[in-house]
Amino acid sequence: MGIRDTMRMAAEPYLIGGEEIQALFGAQTARPGVLIVSNGLPPIGAAAAAGAMGTGSGLAEHMVIGAVVGGLAGMVVGVIMQRAGGNRHLLFVVTSSRILVLQATPAYKRVIGMVTALPRTTRLGPPSGLWYTFPLDDTKVRVHWRQFKEIREADRLLPSAIPAN
Asked: Which pTM does this prediction carry?
């Protein structure tokens, strides 16, 4: 099952009546640089600790110490990320009547809860760059370029203006 299917299944309980999904994409709230550093620190710490042990110990001991140091580094990075505002994974579900913004787990397998619902007349793009950033309430939302196709599709399917009488 692909990521889009996983996202659809996670979003289905939040749909009302005959709503059909027109587009959906994932987004994050942390800066890309913070994500790169936070994901890189635990393995680097584990490798450094295992390498600093020197000779005379076996591979199993290196692995255990590396795992312990990596786990501790991961916890420290997690606390720092949380104190800095954390990183929320958001799932944007565009239907014919509204845009749902759901908070999800990192792999988008499960929805934690609904963040907000935007009117379907909301234009999401045009996206550009490596990471497209736009405001959502008091938060900056960042979308990776791989999701741009979905944003463009959502904007393309915007309901047309009602003609004046």
From this structure: 0.70
